[in-house]
Design a protein that fits this description.
Elements (H helix, E strand, L loop, with lengths): L1 E5 L2 E5 L1 H10 L8 H31 L6 E5 L2 E5 L6 H25 L8 H21 L7 H10 L4 H22 L2 H18 L12
Parallel strand pairs: 2-3
Antiparallel strand pairs: 1-2, 3-4
């Protein structure tokens, strides 16, 4: 575990976050100094981008009066956890803040920074990867699938009285995406969305969810 504070938010980075990000960046095949530089640039970019995403949630939570917000980076991303109940529209805005801030950061870097202007391969890899991760992760999180931000936005928009409908929308989308990627040969995204679909099914049945699939 790595623990530190930023903007007075306690932040914990689980060891599996680093393992997962490194594997996604091609750690298994990184056997040369050049490949290692590219991998390190990717890992740092993913860390900074996902942290910015969670800070977006945390700052809006604080704006709504929550003074006990903490951030955890783990497994498939991160979660900003607070100690205050959020109203329907507060929940919607908090959920939207993460991907919006992350997307804005990615667009800003893509617009302002020329990776070719940086000599070291590590820095070029960092800026290219930061742009890619920020755009992709933000858009991915806007899908109406729980526990992604888009799923929380959908549930908040529909309201507490139709939480079951939000879960059914999430389950349907996750299952269809899992089948699509399985057919297309994308094993990792197929497993990723398959686990979300399974977790949604468990929640619909009132069963305990998988702990590492909880989050915002």
């Amino acid at each position: 575990m790595i623990r530190f504070s930023l903007f007075r938010f306690p932040i914990t980075v689980h060891w599996f976050f680093w393992v997962n990000v490194a594997l996604l960046g091609g750690a298994v095949g990184a056997s040369t100094p050049r490949a290692m530089q590219i991998l390190l640039g990717w890992v740092l970019a993913a860390f900074v981008s996902i942290l910015i995403h969670e800070l977006g949630h945390a700052l809006v939570m604080r704006r709504f009066g929550d003074r006990r917000v903490e951030i955890l980076l783990y497994a498939f991303g991160g979660v900003a956890r607070g100690g205050r109940w959020l109203g329907r529209w507060e929940d919607l805005m908090v959920s939207a803040a993460g991907p919006v801030v992350q997307l804005a950061a990615g667009v800003a870097v893509g617009w302002l920074v020329d990776p070719g202007a940086f000599g070291p391969l590590f820095l070029r890899s960092f800026f290219v990867s930061f742009y890619d991760v920020s755009i992709f992760w933000a858009l991915l999180n806007l899908l109406p699938v729980l526990p992604l931000d888009g799923g929380h936005i959908c549930r908040a928009f529909l309201g507490a009285g139709r939480a079951g409908l939000a879960l059914k929308v999430s389950l349907t989308c996750a299952a269809l995406l899992a089948l699509y990627f399985l057919q297309a040969g994308g094993l990792f995204p197929a497993v990723f969305f398959g686990l979300m679909a399974w977790n949604n099914w468990k929640e619909l049945k009132g069963e305990p969810q998988v702990p590492w699939m909880l989050g915002r």
